[in-house]
From TrEMBL, chain A:
PROSITE patterns: CLAT_ADAPTOR_S. It is a peripheral membrane protein. It comes from Pyrus ussuriensis x Pyrus communis. Residues 1-145 form the AP complex mu/sigma subunit domain. Keywords: Cytoplasmic vesicle, Golgi apparatus, Membrane, Protein transport, Transport. The keyword Membrane applies. InterPro entries: AP_complex_ssu (IPR016635), AP_mu_sigma_su (IPR022775), APS3 (IPR027155), Clathrin_sm-chain_CS (IPR000804), Longin-like_dom_sf (IPR011012). Gene3D superfamilies: 3.30.450.60. The keyword Transport applies. GO terms for biological process: Golgi to vacuole transport; intracellular protein transport. It comes from the Eukaryota. Its main location: membrane. This is AP complex subunit sigma. It is found in: Cytoplasmic vesicle membrane; Golgi apparatus.
Automatic annotation (TrEMBL), chain B:
It comes from Pyrus ussuriensis x Pyrus communis. It holds the Pfam family Adaptin_N. PANTHER family: ADAPTIN, ALPHA/GAMMA/EPSILON. This is AP-4 complex subunit epsilon. Residues 732-835, 925-970 are annotated as: Disordered. Keywords: Golgi apparatus, Membrane, Protein transport, Transport.
Length: 166, 970
């Protein structure tokens, strides 16, 4: 099971944090800080895996990937495969890239809720839901469309009345 | 310029529809981003919280604004600030009909609330309604929240709706419903146990995605109870086969691999089901071998599947062909430049060596490279591997390495871990007592406070009991060497407390035993310790008691005791100590010194720390005295619990009251029933009193309840230990077909730490086997490798016998052709080829379509073999002389039948023949090199294609794309 997904920038600021098992806010901060501490001390050409048991407790592994100013971090247990998780990060980033056309840190911050929408279509309750970024994009677009429609419906009476009153 | 960029972003943001944020939020993000210090950031966030509080308390907030506030709050909370004041608004938002608002509400509550938060009760109703909604997005949003917010109390409230969703027309919903059920199962297995059959049913879902989703819960279920799912082996195998043969829709392909995540999950399940089950395993061989061939190793995910195959192969009933394939993949992993693949290779190697221990030797240099790699993760993984392959021939090198690494790191968690590993290995494999003591000293010196106290006690016990049961001289040698080493160390500054305790105890017990050191010398040292660590009471206590022992031994040996002045002052200081324990020890010391020799000898016998002290619990030695008193007319003693019984006779009817009374009076912990019964028997053997006073019924009933409660308490205590043992078991594999004696010695030693003797004996069998193996494996010439590495390799893998190695290197001097790397890879290759020749003289092939019908009666590998290395076979048929295939056949036979334990014995007798084989293979190396060169290595065309594909996506898997994050890179 995937325990947590984090996006941290190179200054150690969290950009996205999702824990699939509840953690109180202070604990979350502590975890993010320790993860950042480990990641920032790692050299360039080393493996993407980190021994996470000292941070997250027994039977946990951590895989991360460094993109420009951001670290993407997945924490999971032994029922998952490290290389596969590394690819899942790739799927996540690819999808974001498609979503925002050349994604950058600002996109990640400003579209906080969309980030969550994308992530929820990839990982559901700690399990891998979808690994094809095309499929994820389809789902996310569908959600945007229906949300917009739902908005439009609620706005119609107002706009119609204002149009009439003109 | 910076600002312009940001403005551009903002404009772009506005065009993105529903996800755009207001200017305020942008400002917030920007100001936080520009904050110079943590304090400044804090200030900004607190200001924001104030603003939000004020805004949220305004009446009639427009919904759009509300959504914005909630998002800002989520952001603020992510930065670590408390946003609980607005949770209720998030909860309210989930009630909204507008999809956007509802989803935002669900997002916020699932991030804010724990599953036992008070507000959950307000959401459950909404969730129930939403799960029945006809808008599938509403259903999905609710399912998402359910995973996070529902606990075992609230599961029943939503369970019916979620189960209904298993038949939802949309596959995305079915999939999520399965996963939600799985989550319920993880959180409270009992509440969904009656629904487990649903997972089986959904395995046959029309949609592959839904089928894939059921694999996760099934994996969990199978982990717990393998046997009830054996019937699914056939289904899993056929699903895996279909997936591997690309029968799934194209949409499930990922990097040109068919549904790799499903493959991985299935392989994990098969690994569980096939473990220790020959019949099930046999039905898997074909499909696993198929995947080995089909998964390309150019992509990351392909390697993930290959790695999972290795895990599966090492878990199921061993099959030599599959092991061979696995070994090839491992060597490819280890030779890769990627640290990730090396890591996986080391991990896979650790899994495989328990089945075929000889494979490690092929990769000795790769392993050593990994050990010396600057990457900590890789290093630790390698230590894990070394731990698994430790035997008494290489324990010294491995433990030395571990200790060196332990000293170099600061991570206390890992330090503790590796220290315990060192201790464990040293206890298990120590080649000599001297070495053992030295190793333990090092461990204690550098990680003393992190080591479990038990380890210290074990060490003392070992020194006291000695290693050889009969050999007294060896024991006393051990002790005096321990004493000597401790006297050397004792002067060093800042030793850990636990270590000092051990030192004090050993010096007290054995400091003067061999007569080498005088009592005053030892006591002087002990006084120094007590003085230097004057704020550590337990060290002082150990020191004082040690001094007392020394003096007691002196007195009983009829020698004159001279008490050192510093010792005198120490005793005086301690007898006025705040700690009663120290006071008592000091007074005891003074009392013992003033006694005469015979008395001292009976109180403090020499070297009696291991003698059992017999305790007469019945106090029978007092019988005479009691009898005398009774005759003089004294009242017989009535035990306390029976006294209350007497009381009870007076108010007979009030049983309940009595029970309450005994409850309130019982302060001590509940014991097991047995000692309680014995305590009820009057110590002074006054049988009449028990007959007269009946045992009160209620207290008896309570006693009966005790066994139920007390074991559970002790279970909880030992749970951790048990769990850890399980982990060890897992790493070492279930007690399956592992050949050499080393796993068996592990299991025996994990059950009992004290029987070091038995363990070392078992192990010596293992070493004799492995040494035989070592001799031929070290024959591989290693010219280009640095002297130091070679030495390390030989000590790690090849045992310590140098005489055996020398002739082997001369043996091969003639055949040092080509680069070292290619030679290494060829040696095993050649072996494969030979076996194949033997197994299948006619390399004509059966077509794949035929083989899918899976004729299980025939070994599927024989059919597939020819496909593997057809060219190799062709080029090598003529090399198989009469003698070698014979031997190889023998080798193959033994491992096929799973009796690889006899393999070790077999080898030495056939060693000459084997030399022949290896020479033959080395002769063919040059010829073969060409063939494999073509087969191996990345195909340039593939690589180009992949590169262009990657470029199209705008994301590179390995390094940051220049396009990506361009605006921030500047």
């Amino acid at each position: 099971m995937i325990r947590s997904v984090m996006v941290i920038n190179t200054q150690g600021k969290p950009r996205l944090a999702k824990f699939y098992e509840f953690q109180p806010a202070e604990k979350q901060q502590e975890l993010i800080r320790s993860v950042y501490g480990v990641l920032s001390s790692r050299a360039e050409n080393v493996s993407n895996f980190v021994d996470a048991e000292s941070i997250f407790g027994p039977d946990t592994r951590l895989v991360y990937k460094h993109f420009a100013t951001l670290y993407f971090v997945f924490v999971f247990d032994s029922s998952e495969n490290e290389l596969a998780m590394l690819d899942l990060i790739q799927v996540f980033v690819e999808t974001l890239d498609k979503c925002f056309k050349n994604v950058c840190e600002l996109d990640v911050v400003l579209n906080y809720s969309k980030m969550h929408t994308v992530l929820d279509e990839i990982i559901f309750g700690g399990q891998v839901l979808e690994t094809s970024s095309t499929e994820v994009m389809k789902a996310v677009e569908e959600i945007s469309r229906l949300e917009a429609a739902s908005n439009a419906i609620s706005l119609v009476p107002k706009s119609v009345s204002s149009w009439r009153s003109r | 310029m910076e600002q312009l960029k940001t403005i551009g972003r903002e404009l772009a943001m506005g065009s993105q529809g529903g996800f755009g944020q207001s200017k305020e939020f942008l400002d917030l993000v920007k100001s936080i981003g520009e904050a110079r210090s943590k304090a400044e950031e804090e200030r900004i966030v607190l200001l924001e919280i104030e603003t939000l509080k004020r805004r949220l308390s305004e009446p009639e907030i427009p919904k759009r604004k509300m959504k914005e506030y909630i998002i800002r709050l989520v952001y603020v909370e992510m930065l670590g600030h408390d946003g609980s004041f607005a949770y209720i608004h998030a909860v309210k938002m989930t009630h909204d009909d507008n999809l956007l608002l509802k989803r935002t509400g669900y997002l916020a509550v699932s991030l804010f609330l724990s599953d036992d938060h008070d507000l959950i009760i307000l959401i459950v109703n909404t969730i129930q309604k939403d799960l029945r909604s006809d808008n599938y997005l509403v259903v999905c949003a609710a399912l998402n929240a359910v995973c996070k917010l529902i606990n075992d109390e609230t599961v029943p409230a939503v369970l019916p709706q979620v189960v209904d969703l298993l038949a939802h027309p949309k596959e995305a919903v079915r999939k999520k419903a399965i996963m939600a059920l799985h989550r319920f199962y993880q959180k409270s297995p009992s509440s969904v146990s009656h629904l487990v059959s649903n997972f089986r049913k959904r395995l046959c879902d029309n949609d592959p995605g839904v089928m894939g989703a059921t694999l996760w819960p099934l994996f969990d279920l199978i982990t717990i109870d393998v046997n009830s799912y054996k019937d699914l082996v056939v289904s899993f195998v056929s699903i895996l086969k279909q997936v591997a043969e690309r029968r799934l829709p194209k949409a499930y392909d990922y990097h040109q691999l068919p549904a790799p995540f499903i493959q991985i999950r299935l392989l994990k399940i098969l690994a569980l089901l096939g473990s220790g089950d020959k019949q099930s395993s046999e039905s898997m061989y074909m499909v696993v071998s198929d995947i080995f061939r089909k998964s390309e190793s150019t992509s990351n995910i392909g390697n993930a599947v290959l790695y999972e195959c290795i895990c599966c192969v090492s878990s199921i009933y061993p099959n030599p062909k599959l092991l061979e394939q696995a070994a090839q993949v491992i060597s490819r992993f280890l030779k890769s430049d990627s640290h990730n693949l090396k890591y996986m290779g080391i991990d896979a190697l650790g899994r495989l060596i328990k089945i075929s221990p000889e494979i490690a030797e092929q990769h000795q240099l790769a392993v050593i490279d990994c050990l010396e790699d600057p990457d900590d993760t890789l290093k630790r993984k390698t230590f894990e591997l070394l731990y698994k392959m430790t035997k008494s021939s290489n324990v010294e090198v491995i433990v030395d390495r571990m200790i060196d690494y332990m000293i170099s790191i600061n991570d206390n968690h890992y330090k503790t871990y590796i220290a315990s590993r060192c201790v464990e290995l040293a206890e298990k494999f120590a080649p000599s007592n001297q070495w053992f003591i030295q190793t333990m000293n090092k461990v204690f010196e550098h990680a003393g406070d992190l080591v479990n106290v038990k380890v210290a006690h074990n060490l003392m016990k070992l020194i006291a009991e000695g290693f050889g049961e009969d050999d007294d001289t060896a024991d006393s040698q051990l002790r005096s060497s321990a004493v000597e080493s401790y006297l050397r160390i004792i002067g060093e500054p800042k030793l850990p407390s636990v270590f000092l305790q051990v030192i004090c105890w050993v010096l007290g017990e054995y400091g003067t035993a061999d007569g080498k050191y005088s009592a005053s010398y030892i006591t002087g040292k002990l006084c120094d310790v007590a003085e230097a660590y004057s704020n550590d009471e337990s060290v002082k206590a150990y020191a004082v008691t040690a001094i007392m022992k020394i003096y007691a031994f002196e007195i009983s040996a009829q020698r004159k005791v001279e008490i050192l002045p510093e010792c005198q002052s120490l005793v005086e200081e301690l007898s006025a100590s705040h700690s009663t324990d120290l006071q008592q020890r000091a007074y005891e010391l003074q009392a013992v010194i003033s006694l005469d020799a015979p008395a001292v000898e009976s109180i403090m016998p020499l070297d009696a720390s291991c003698e059992d002290i017999e305790i007469d619990k019945n106090l029978s030695f007092l019988n005479g005295y009691v009898q005398e008193a009774l005759e003089k007319g004294a009242q017989p003693y009535i035990p306390e619990n029976e006294r209350s019984g007497v009381l009870d006779v007076s108010n007979f009817g009030n049983q309940d009251h009595h029970e309450a009374l005994t409850h309130s009076l019982k302060f001590e912990a509940y014991d097991l029933p047995k000692p309680v019964v014995s305590s009820r028997v009057p110590p002074a053997a006054v049988a009449s009193s028990t007959e007269l006073v009946p045992v009160p019924e209620p207290s008896y009933a309570r006693e009966i309840r005790q066994p139920a409660s007390s074991p559970s308490v002790s279970d909880a205590g030992s749970l951790e230990l048990k769990l850890r043992l399980d982990g060890v078991q897992k790493k070492w594999g279930r007690p399956t077909y592992s050949s050499s004696a080393s796993p068996s010695s592990n299991s025996s030693s994990s059950t009992s730490h004290n029987t070091t003797n038995g363990v070392t004996q078992v192990d010596s069998v293992g070493t004799s086997n492995s040494k035989a193996r070592d001799t031929y494996d070290s024959k591989r010439p290693q010219v280009e490798i640095s002297q130091e590495k070679q030495k390390l390799a030989s000590s790690l893998f090849g045992g310590s016998s140098k005489t055996e190695k020398r002739p082997s290197s001369t043996n091969h001097k003639a055949s040092k052709v080509g680069s070292h790397a290619s030679e290494k890879s060829q040696a095993p290759k050649a072996a494969v080829v030979h076996t194949e020749v033997n197994h299948e003289p006619v390399p004509d092939l059966l077509d794949l379509g035929d083989s899918t019908s899976s004729a299980l009666s025939v070994d599927p590998f024989k059919q597939l073999e020819g496909l593997l290395d057809q060219t190799d076979v062709a080029s090598n048929v003529n090399h198989g002389t009469a003698k070698t295939p014979d031997f190889m056949g023998l080798y193959a036979d033994t491992s096929v039948s799973g009796l690889s334990s006899s393999f070790g014995d077999l080898l030495p007798t056939n060693r000459d023949e084997f030399n022949l084989t290896s020479e033959l293979s080395s002769a063919t190396r040059t010829a073969q090199g060409g063939v494999t060169q073509i087969n191996k290595g990345p195909n340039p065309k593939d690589a180009l294609e992949k590169d262009s594909r990657v470029r199209q996506m705008g994301v590179t898997p390995t390094r940051p794309n220049p396009n990506l994050f361009r605006d921030l890179l500047g």
